[in-house]
Write a structure and sequence with these properties.
PEP-CTERM protein-sorting domain-containing protein, 2 domains, 12 strands, 4-stranded antiparallel sheet, 201 residues, alpha+beta, 6-stranded antiparallel sheet, Jelly Rolls, signal
Length: 201
């Protein structure tokens, strides 16, 4: 009985270790490390739960307030704490940013707020990621596998006014377990099966 309990406990701990390596990178609250550190810069690198993200603007400087996060672009009339689309009223380019991670990850969710005037966001990489966001809220990225160093581009591709930009809330990812982790768990499962069979014999 004690052996069975020990094996079950070890299995539960192993499963927890696999599921615990998730990270939420929060930008919109300037009280967070990321939001305050990026304010007034063109980018930086930040680590959450052993996963490092490197993020950089496509133009302008990042700008964070108490509840918004965007880009302060050079164009006249820019919404300084949101991401905007270029338009006929101003010379500025469409605003956005790039990011990548220091390890293989699954892209889980992308959260935004403050949408207005038909804002549209395009999220792409150099492979098959191609997601469009057209409203406030959290969009699932389907646990898309993004390999280490692969760059994702987030670009404002629609909207009708500089004065109504969208806000980046958070990017959620989870780590991809190393192949050795799966091998270890498979070996553990096989050992458990053999020991339980011998015990019942």
């Amino acid at each position: 009985m004690k052996l069975t309990q020990t094996l079950l406990s070890a299995a539960a701990i192993s499963c927890f270790a696999l599921s615990a390596s998730a990270a939420d990178f929060v930008f919109s609250d300037d009280s967070t490390t990321i939001g305050s550190a990026l304010d007034g810069t063109t980018g930086g690198a930040f680590t959450v739960d052993t996963i490092e993200i490197t993020i950089a603007t496509l133009n302008g400087d990042f700008n964070g307030t108490s509840n918004e996060f965007g880009v302060n672009g050079p164009e006249s009339g820019d919404d300084t704490d949101g991401f905007n689309i270029a338009e006929s009223e101003g010379p500025g380019p469409a605003e956005g940013f790039t990011f990548y991670f220091d390890q293989d990850v699954y892209l889980n969710d992308f959260s935004v707020s403050s949408f207005g005037d038909s804002d549209v966001i395009s999220i792409t990489d150099t492979s098959t990621l191609n997601t469009t966001i057209t409203s406030t809220g959290t969009t699932s990225l389907g646990d898309y596998l993004l390999t280490s160093g692969s760059v994702v581009t987030v670009l404002t591709t629609g909207g009708s006014a500089y004065t109504n930009g969208w806000t980046l809330e958070s990017i959620s990812v989870s780590a991809v377990p190393e192949p050795g982790t799966f091998a270890l768990l498979s070996g553990f499962a096989a050992l458990t099966f053999v020991m339980l069979r011998r015990r019942s014999a």
